[in-house]
Amino acid sequence: MRPELWHPPTELSAAEQKIVKLIKRAKLFVFLRQNRHELFDDEFQHALAQMYADKPKGHPPIAPALLCLAIILQAYTGASDDEAIEALVMDRRWQLVLDCLDCEQAPFAKGTLVEFRALLIHHEMDRLLVERTITLAQKRGGFSSRSLRAALDSSPLWGAGKVEDTYNLLGHALRKALSVIARQQGRELTEIATAAGAPMLGASSVKVALDLNWDDPQERQVALALTLQALTQVETWVAEQALPPSSALTQPVQQSLSVAQQIVAQDVETSETAVSN
């Protein structure tokens, strides 16, 4: 049985207006609330419904648009499936987007979300969802489409088969090294990353931190150069900390830096005039 189309209100209610005014940084929530009706027009919803064509009859499935919105928010915020379900009950920003303000129970279960994402990937609709969202962000403005692409493209939610790129692999290794020191010193990762001269490592991923056009080969070279520079900065800063060889910090930090160097050795080619991936 195919799901019914979802037609939530387009105008903000008085309660929604109050929530929107309180959102200062996480503008994706506002963007999706204001543009969800255009992102999920009837044509796209019909295309999503086609994924259920071969499903046995039974209870009508949850509207795919609702599940797609949750997946977009997951990808952007880095929330796990459990965290997403919890956010739908505890976080009014998520409720704003999915039209379930003050709900005491999530509009769908974790299993439904997991199964739908697998269905989305199986039918290769995940890329269409990403591209439609980014295109709409470019069209409407008020939100960085580049940051959105970076967050969505680097999300692990699109399946274990997706290979993470060199930028984020390097970023993860360096972030792990700094996180060990941050925890030991009782400081925030962003503070340690800034102290190390690599503030971009304080973001959830390198591609999120660098607001670049990832479709442009020249800008990708710039990104890789900045990431390699961050590696040098972190190695220099860690050396300056003069960690004792017997310290509990030394081994995990050095292991993470060794992983970063291994990634560079395997995946990066350098020359006197360019850095390429």
Protein model, in words:
This protein is mainly alpha-helical. Helix content is 62%, strand content 1%. Strands 1-2 form a two-stranded antiparallel ribbon. A hairpin with a 4-residue loop joins β1 (269-270) and β2 (275-276). α2 (27-39) runs parallel beside α6 (92-98) and α8 (126-140) runs antiparallel to α9. The longest helix is centred in the last third of the chain and has 25 residues, at 217-241.
Number of helices: 14
What's the total number of strands? 2
How far from one another are the termini? 46 Å
Overall geometric form? elongated
* Structural class category: mainly alpha
Mean pLDDT equals 83
Nearest-angstrom radius of gyration?
A: 21 Å
pLDDT < 50 stretches: 160-164, 271-277
Helix fraction?
55-70%
With strands numbered from the N-terminus, the spatial order across the biggest sheet is: 1-2
Percent strand equals under 5%
Question: What is the H/E string?
Answer: HHHHHHHHHHHHHHEE
Sheet of most strands: 2 strands, antiparallel
